[in-house]
Amino acid sequence: MIGYVTLGTNDLPRAAAFYDALAGEMGTPRMMEFETFIAWGTENGPAGIAVTKPYDGQAATVGNGVMVALEAKDKDQVHRLYDIALAHGGTCEGPPGPRGDGFYAGYFRDPDGNKLNAFVMGEAAA
Hints:
Pfam families: Glyoxalase. The chain is an alpha/beta fold. The chain has a single domain (4-53, 68-125), classed as 2,3-Dihydroxybiphenyl 1,2-Dioxygenase, domain 1 (Roll). The chain has two helices and eight strands. The strands form two sheets. The chain has a four-stranded mixed beta sheet, covered by helices on one side. The chain has a four-stranded mixed beta sheet with strand order 5-8-7-6.
């Protein structure tokens, strides 16, 4: 099981504003914060997400084919998360909509270019 996912950033304050907005919609608080690292999650909760300036001091870069999926409560929250992402410097990678039988998602990149999606599956995707 995944405990948390960490994404690189070259601008921690910008990344913090982006992820604070998404986490706020999902009801997930910051749980750790250091000079170069911020994490959102809940103790003993589902997997969290973090952003960090790379430990080696080099520029953060995105992984081709890497994506983090944020599980939404319903299709309306998929739309809200997608809209929040774009309003906070994210870019569209595919607007919310059905993506196959029982899967509904919206795709976007954060301001550093990391790819994410918000999704629901099963009855919530109907």
